[in-house]
Specification:
With 122 residues, the protein is an alpha/beta fold. 22% of the residues lie in helices and 41% in strands. Strands 1-4-3-2 form a four-stranded mixed beta sheet, with helices on one face. A four-stranded mixed beta sheet has the order 5-8-7-6, covered by helices on one side. It is globular. The model has no long low-confidence stretch (mean pLDDT 95).
């Protein structure tokens, strides 16, 4: 069982604002914040999402091939989260639409630190 996923950031305030906006659409609640890390919990429980300054104080970088996928309740929510991410300065990595099979509807974007995020509904 995964407890949480952590994404690195170089600016906790900017990343915190970005994720507060996006995750509030998904019903997530901020449950912890310090000067180094912020955690959110989703309505249905399970794994949490965190953003964090790096422990070794080196710049945070994103991994090539690394992605976090967040499950949503509808195609409309996928569209809403994706649009909000772009409004907030995120970069498109794949517009909303059906992928691979008709049951999967997803969109892809990069956050302000370059972390790749997928939002989808199945």
């Amino acid at each position: 069982m995964i407890s949480h996923t952590t994404l690195g950031t170089n600016d906790l305030d900017k990343a915190g604002s970005f994720y507060n906006e996006i995750l509030s659409i998904m019903g997530a609640t901020k449950i912890y914040e310090s000067e180094k890390v912020i955690f959110w919990e989703f309505e249905d429980g399970g794994a949490k999402l965190a953003i964090s300054m790096t422990y070794n104080e080196e710049p945070a970088t994103h991994g090539n091939g690394t992605m976090v996928a967040l499950s949503l309740t509808s195609n409309d929510k996928v569209n809403e989260v994706y649009a909000k991410a772009l409004i907030l300065g995120g970069a498109c990595e794949g517009e909303p639409g059906k992928r691979n099979d008709d049951a999967f509807y997803g969109a892809y974007f990069r956050d302000l630190d370059g972390n790749k995020i997928a939002v989808f509904h199945r």
